[in-house]
What does this fold into?
Amino acid sequence: MLRRTLALALAVLAFGAACAAFAGLAPVALADPPTVRVEVRANAGTVDGTVTLTAGGRSFTCHTHGGSCAITGVPGGPAQASFAPDGGGAAPPPRTVMIAPSGDTQLVLSAGR
It folds into this structure.
């Protein structure tokens, strides 16, 4: 009888320890996805157009309003950034930029005007 009680107590302790360990490994909080905040500058103030970031074999775009826009989900690491102004015109050459692996990245591009 004592053996059975002792075995049951050990099983309950082991189950409790396993539950505590599992709960510690399972993240519960949801984090905001990384965001690239883009600002496009020109000599004559702000300019609107399409910003394209190419990273990890995928392209991500946003359209500026008042010279700024935001893109979420861009993987961290090097990316190619390009800007195409509204209404056509000369676009600046693409450039390589570095995107942070987490959190926000501030990216300032020149409209070349």
Observations:
- The longest helix spans residues 2-25.
- The longest strand covers residues 77-85.
